[in-house]
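Below is a filled-in request sheet from our internal design queue. Each sheet records the structural input a requester submitted and the sequence that came back. We keep these sheets so that new team members can see what a complete request looks like end to end.

REQUESTER: design group, bay 2
PRIORITY: normal
MODE: inverse folding
CHAIN LENGTH: 328
BACKBONE (tokenized):
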């Protein structure tokens, strides 16, 4: 009798001790959530997000398994960004990833505490961070350095069309990095003996009007600044440039792959892949204020031979040797 009582008590105690352990073992592990906000569109950003996913995978993160990514796009309508940013921030999220300067500005205005990882042309110049080495606040990431390479784009398009004395510039004044690029381009123009013709665009209708005006007094070439809205409408811009027989240089390879003549800029797929290391550090407890903003390590020149032939222009041999990719 005594033995059976003691045995029962021991069994009860063991089961009571095991219960919390079993419950703890069955508790689901926390899956970190990222939110991606962009002023552009899903198709424009797909290659960049693929780079981010690859970088995360290399660090042991698999989307849908041990990390979740929710996406929001303004599709070139910058006025939508504040509401999209506010919606994302009110959800349970560890890191907000933003794909451009307009989205970064909207995110910064919406929160000063949630970690924000960004990739923009000049994060210091547009007031996102205090300095590259010491960002301060809740924002860090990478600079795609469009502002630093825009003058090189002017040189490259002049190499292709050496007789061009007037070069049109299509840019979006609503993008905080575009005025900076315009200032730098203006400063570089005299040395190349070109006059710049400014055409501002905040939407598809403005783009149509700009090209209609260009056809009245055709410039020798066109420079299109890096901008999410212009990126969303890249097919429209490429078609209009072709119709106007206007050699144009762009900021990213997606536009050249869509039929544009040439581009020079940061390898954004590689940059987004690199951005995964920042996300990993933040998820492991690092503060954005302590993570220096990284400058791009690679720029790429992409040329489209088919478009060049259609426009009746020839790439100089030196440019062909410098090209990272030549589309036949």
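RETURNED SEQUENCE:
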């Amino acid at each position: 009798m005594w033995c059976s009582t003691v045995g029962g008590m021991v069994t009860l105690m063991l089961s009571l001790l095991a219960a919390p352990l079993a419950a703890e073992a069955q508790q689901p592990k926390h899956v970190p959530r990222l939110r991606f906000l962009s002023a552009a569109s899903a198709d424009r950003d797909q290659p960049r997000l693929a780079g981010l996913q690859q970088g995360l995978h290399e660090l042991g993160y698999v989307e849908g398994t041990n990390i979740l990514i929710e996406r929001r796009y303004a599709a070139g309508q910058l006025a939508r960004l504040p509401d999209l940013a506010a919606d994302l921030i009110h959800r349970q999220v560890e890191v907000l990833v933003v794909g451009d300067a307009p989205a970064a500005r909207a995110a910064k205005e919406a929160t000063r505490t949630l970690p924000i990882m960004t990739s923009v042309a000049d994060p210091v110049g547009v007031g996102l961070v205090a300095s590259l080495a010491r960002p301060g606040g809740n924002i860090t990431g990478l600079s795609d350095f469009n502002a630093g390479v825009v003058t090189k784009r002017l040189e490259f398009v002049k190499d292709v069309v050496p007789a061009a004395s007037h070069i049109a510039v299509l840019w979006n004044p609503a993008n905080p990095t575009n005025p900076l690029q315009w200032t730098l381009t203006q400063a570089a123009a005299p040395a190349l003996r070109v006059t710049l013709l400014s055409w501002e665009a905040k939407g598809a209708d403005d783009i149509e009007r700009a090209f209609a005006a260009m056809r009245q007094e055709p410039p020798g070439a066109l420079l299109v600044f890096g901008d999410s809205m212009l990126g969303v409408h890249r097919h429209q811009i490429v078609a209009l440039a072709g119709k106007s027989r206007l050699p144009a240089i762009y900021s990213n390879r997606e536009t050249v792959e869509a039929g544009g003549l040439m581009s020079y800029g940061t390898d954004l797929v590689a940059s987004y892949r690199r951005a995964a290391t920042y996300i990993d550090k933040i998820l492991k407890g690092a503060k954005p204020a302590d993570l220096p903003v990284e400058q791009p390590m690679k720029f790429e020149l992409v040329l489209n031979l088919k478009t060049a032939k259609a426009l009746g222009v020839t790439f100089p041999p030196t440019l062909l040797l410098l090209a990272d990719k030549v589309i036949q």
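SHEET NOTES:
- Residues 1-7, 9-14, 21-26 have pLDDT under 50 and may be disordered.
- The first helix runs from residue 2 to 26.
FILED BY: M.R.
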